[in-house]
Amino acid sequence: MRPYARNSLGRGFIFQQNNDPKHGSKHIQNWFSRRHVTLKDWPGQSPDLNIIEGVWAELERRLEGRNARDADEKISQLEEEWKIPLSFIQTLLDSMPRRRQVVIDAKGMATKH
């Protein structure tokens, strides 16, 4: 993971987990520690602060109505539709300061994202 992230994202990248309880196990925490991966505290149940949720929604929208005859065809469809434009992802990134403020204003409660 680290070589890929460093080569693709550069030094100082932040590894974001989704707060799945199994990621908090001692075994997983030790794995990260041995590899010198710094983890950031992240609020639980916070899809409004994770742009990947918007990416998944876009992928789902692109696949809507596309039926596959078998697993190979579905994989091909996924690979084809995964080519989501960088401009879409940039729009999601640009929305983060506003989203963060909405969460702060809501005192950490659920938001509409």
Automatic annotation (TrEMBL):
One Pfam family linked to the record: DDE_3
Ranges for domain Tc1-like transposase DDE: 20-73
InterPro entries assigned: RNaseH_sf, Tc1-like_DDE_dom
Recorded superkingdom: Eukaryota
Gene Ontology MF, one: nucleic acid binding
This protein's name: Transposable element Tc1 transposase
